[in-house]
Amino acid sequence: MRIAILSPSSRFMQHHKSCNSGKNAISLLSEGLIKRGVDVTLFTSSDLETKERLESNCSIPYKEENHLNFIACVSSHMVNVLKKAGEFDLIHNYFNLVPLFYRRLINTPMVTTIHAPSSDILSLFKEDEGRSYYVSASIAGRNPCLEYISTIYDSIDLPSFTLKEQKENYLISFGNIHPNNGIEEAIEIARKSGMKLVLTGNVLDQTYFENVVLPQQGDHLIIHGGMIDQALKDKLLGGAYAFLHSIRFGDPFDLSIIEAMACGTPVIAFSGSAMHEIIKDCETGYIVESIEDALNRLKHISTINRTQCRRWVEDRFSQDRMVEDYLQVYKKILEMERPRAHHANPPWGKWEVLLDEPTYKVKRITVLPGNRLSYQKHFQREEYWNVVGGKASVTIDGKEILLKSGQAIDIPKGAAHRVANQEQSSLVFIEIQRGSYLGEDDIVRLEDDYGRS
């Protein structure tokens, strides 16, 4: 299986992270797929560090502040993908919605992971359903205008987070510092509970930060503005009495909640978005409706088993689980696409569609030395084979015929047939199919050297 993964820009990823968490979900997915034997190529900006095969024809990092450079890079990035789309069985778009506008220019199937309901723009892609496939990163993040093939939760890099049984007397909150991100609610919960609050996040609204948040800094409020490294993050999360998520809307799937539970730290979160998908209420934390409710639940947070928090993450948000879920989606899509596939690499060689019309199709077929196709029948089409390289040993209804380069033969509808290459070099022939239905599933295999049915 050959998979192309389109990665978001580094600027996008850093904008959505409050610290350097090491491997992101895309790296974890790519590495996990490679371990399963999948051929993965990662299309991304040139400044992203990765161990996977990297495709980038843009030397300007996406995190550049120059927006014209950014747009130019995105466009160049997409042209590179379009040129090489035919080399892959499937394209996994983890980028954003931009590649969906190019979807109709390629024959390779595409699956897109959508992290947020995003809005009205998704309705533009509804008419392309049937050739585009969508995975939601949470049930809460689904948009009703699209049909989704699955919901797959992002994983975290579990080895980067340490389970800590001993907790300290402080609360912690991670997230971008912005008026809509529940910062003041978290500060109020900490103040009324008499506990210290550690606040960490990128400052998205400098005026709000300087006028509202920063003046409250003191013994009871410690602020880490900007990115923090993974070691400090692990230490802060693991030592916290509880993690506060006081946002009522916004990102429907917050990985920092999962990271906290991976360290054994229970979570108190305002209800909404995907909280019921992320937190096991009363077992790994509490989902609350108000500040007063949060204060009441804080009194019982010590009853939460910190080891159980870690196990919940291991079972639900591990790399292995995410990789397996995506593998099943890939296989399902490729099976659905099989009747209209435009290229394939079966064990005997390869084939590619050169022309595809409603009543006829033209293929170039290459058979490796010493290999042969299955003995098969088609009931909705007839075929015409023209050898252009090598020699073909053709069998039709039990009769064997030898064809040299430049010779051709008709395969009647319903006839049992196969072709074999008994030479030392590859056999290449052009196949012209004619009929009312030309899907790859119009086949009955009578014999097959590779155990296919």
From TrEMBL:
Keyword RNA-binding attached: no
An MF annotation (GO) of this entry: mannose-1-phosphate guanylyltransferase (GTP) activity
Domain of life of the native organism: Bacteria
Organism: Candidatus Jettenia ecosi
Lineage: Bacteria, Pseudomonadati, Planctomycetota, Candidatus Brocadiia, Candidatus Brocadiales
Domain Glycosyl transferase family: 162-294
One Pfam entry name: Glycos_transf_1
Keyword Nucleotidyltransferase annotated: yes
Domain Mannose-6-phosphate isomerase type II C-terminal, residue spans: 344-448
UniProt protein name: Mannose-1-phosphate guanylyltransferase (GDP)
BP GO annotations: GDP-mannose biosynthetic process; polysaccharide metabolic process
Residue span, Glycosyltransferase subfamily 4-like N-terminal domain: 29-119
Database matches in InterPro entries: Glyco_trans_1, Glyco_trans_4-like_N, Man6P_isomerase-2_C, Mannose-6P_isomerase_type2, RmlC-like_jellyroll, RmlC_Cupin_sf
UniProt keywords, alphabetically: Nucleotidyltransferase, Transferase
